[in-house]
Amino acid sequence: MELKVLDCGLTVCKVASLEGFDLTSEPCFIGRTDEELSLVCRTEVVPRETLAREDGWRAFRVQGVLDFSLSGILARLSAVLAEKKIGIFAVSTYNTDYILVKGENLSPALAALEAAGHTVV
């Protein structure tokens, strides 16, 4: 599998509203449930008012468009990282999957994934 590292620091946060947030900022992942509104975005564009936030994340993307019939992609990648005791925050989009790791774990995560046969570009 080919993986690409995103070139920015990310924040995972919980917000009361997206009012005033620039939705054209990339990358930007939003999740809303009956319990919360979560936002993942570049650290420098985090809304001023958050209910909770966790800075210091880095991300890599599974390259290409993944067919919905494929299974186990996140399971395979996360198993490699779990074996190295590296926690993740996963986000899926229509096209592909993104895996976030804390910044200090980015190099060890990529080394483990490469050792498992994945290509990092």
Uncertain segments are: none
Q: What is the CATH top level name?
A: Alpha Beta
How many helices in DSSP terms? 2
Instruction: Estimate the global geometry from the Cα principal axes.
Output: globular
CATH homologous superfamily designation: VC0802-like
**Mind describing the biggest β-sheet?**
8 strands, mixed
Named at the architecture level, the CATH assignment is 2-Layer Sandwich
CATH topology: VC0802-like
Radius of gyration: 15 Å
Which range does the strand content fall in?
35-45%
Amount of helix: 10-25%
The count of β-strands is: 8
Quick check: average pLDDT?
Answer: 94
Distance between the termini: 11 Å
Descriptive notes:
This protein has about 120 residues and is of the alpha+beta class. It has a single domain, classed as 2-Layer Sandwich (VC0802-like). Helix content is about 15%, strand content about 35%. It has two helices and eight strands; from the N terminus they run E-E-E-E-E-H-E-E-H-E. Strands 1, 2, 3, 4, 5, 6, 7 and 8 form an eight-stranded mixed β-sheet that branches. A hairpin with a 4-residue loop joins strand 3 (about 30) and strand 4. The longest helix is centred in the middle third of the chain and has 11 residues, at about 75-85. The relative contact order is 0.24.
Task: Itemize the secondary structure elements and their pairings.
Blueprint: E1 2-5, E2 10-14, E3 28-32, E4 37-42, E5 52-62, H1 73-83, E6 89-92, E7 97-102, H2 106-115, E8 119-120
Parallel strand pairs: 1-8
Antiparallel strand pairs: 1-5, 2-4, 2-5, 3-4, 5-7, 6-7
